[in-house]
Amino acid sequence: MLPVGWLVFAVVLAVLLSMWVTFTLTRLDRLHARVDAAWAALDAQLVRRAAALQHVAESPDSGLSVPLRAPCDEVARAALAARTQDAARQSTENAVGRMISSVAERADLLRPDAEAELGEGAERVQVARRFYNDAVRDTRALRSRRMPRLLRLAGRRAMPQFFDIDDTVILPARRPETAPAVDAGPTDAKDAI
Predict the structure, then answer these.
(1) 128-180 pLDDT tens trace
(2) Which helix (H) or strand (E) is 8 found in, with range?
(3) How many domains does the structure of the chain reveal?
(4) Could you list the residue ranges that cross the membrane (predicted)?
(5) d(CA 186, CA 114)
(6) What pLDDT is attached to residue 63?
(7) Which CATH number belongs to the domain containing residue 163 in this structure?
(8) Residue 16 has pLDDT above 90, yes or no
């Protein structure tokens, strides 16, 4: 090639490389913003779940037995005081999940509104944690590629960490107290016509 051809090739290559770096950097920034937003949503749902447990523990008409009230309140207060995203927070949230599970075992004593409050809080934590961990997985996958790592496109941002807790709380479905009478319909073939 002529020197002009090499120059054009070099310019095109530089433009393509800078476009790729810009695209990757923008995508990485969006993924980090997604992780931050997902963490904020997860944190809100964790606080909501702990507040629901505390509300059930403090409410005298919730149906919760007296021996369970103090441990539930203690665990809920510890979870509401936790604000970091570390192993201590994960163990605190696991304690909340275990306490809700132990309350769920005695769900027949709970009032339906208290049971629904705990169940909804647990379900929302499951969904929020799934979104957060998906965002972390995508961000870590992009950051682990060779070129973003070599070019240090993430800058000084810390590698996002997964938030692993046991959030498999299953509250039993409440059976209706009185079943409505159901019309059985006609008893023989002549009545059906």
Answers:
(1) 999 999 999 999 999 898 888 888 888 888 899 999 998 876 665 544 444 45
(2) helix 3-58
(3) 1
(4) 6-25
(5) 42
(6) 82
(7) 1.20.1440
(8) yes
Q: Is residue 74 part of a domain?
A: yes
Map tokens 């702990």 to a residue. Answer: 50
List, as own/partner pairs, every contact residues 75-84 make where C-beta atoms lie below 8 angstroms and the sequence separation is at least 24, other chains included: 75/50, 75/99, 76/50, 76/51, 79/46, 79/47, 79/49, 79/50, 79/53, 80/47, 80/50, 80/51, 80/54
User: pTM of the predicted model, to two decimals?
Assistant: 0.80
Number of CB atoms found within 10 A of residue 62's CB:
21
Domain of 60 in residue numbering reads as 23-171
Please report whether residue 76 resides in a domain.
yes
Q: 105 in a domain, yes or no? A: yes
CA-to-CA dists, residue 47 to 12, 41, 81, 92, 139, angstroms: 52, 10, 9, 12, 25
